[in-house]
Design a protein that fits this description.
Helices cover 0% and strands 53% of the residues. It is rod-shaped and about 80 Å long.
């Protein structure tokens, strides 16, 4: 959330808020504040698309502000753990990120990319990414790798 504020000389003004020249209206994205001489614009659920020049136009005066939105660096907060299972059993691998991401991720098993389907289930919910393997075979043994952006977590799967 970002709050932009300006103050008017008189309490009874009708401000017009704009972003890059386009008129902004109150709604789920923007909240317009007006208390006495204090004026404000709240920008909710901020994304990179919210960057730009905002202005508060009082008719006689215009106040401008440049908004820059930087993406927060993402990291891995829970790395993959090795797993040792018996042939025919199921196993799961879990990786948790520091924040949610809309970027594509990938899983690989012994160098081969794993897709959702068959014995493999690839899923994500919020910050948690999971790979589940059903009916494990000895051929599944090897290195398990989770990748997203330039981040990687590696572990091993041993099958008995």
């Amino acid at each position: 959330m970002i709050t932009l504020a300006c103050e008017a000389c008189k309490p009874r003004v009708s401000p017009t808020w704009r972003k890059d020249g386009a008129l902004l209206k109150a709604g789920p994205k923007y909240e317009l504040l007006h208390t006495g001489k204090s004026l404000g614009l709240i920008i909710k659920d901020v994304t990179k698309e919210d960057a730009g020049e905002y202005s508060c136009d009082l008719g006689t005066e215009v106040s401008k502000s440049k908004v820059t939105v930087r993406e927060i660096a993402i990291g891995i907060t829970k790395y993959l753990k090795s797993s040792e299972v018996n042939e025919g059993e199921s196993c799961s691998f879990e990786c948790i990120l520091s924040r949610e991401s809309t970027d594509a991720c990938s899983w690989s098993l012994s160098g081969a990319v794993v897709a959702n389907g068959g014995r493999f289930r690839v899923s994500s919910k919020g910050r948690k990414y999971m790979l589940t393997i059903r009916d494990v075979t000895p051929a599944d043994a090897g290195e398990v790798v989770f990748s997203i952006n330039e981040l990687t977590s590696k572990t091993t799967l041993a099958v008995e």
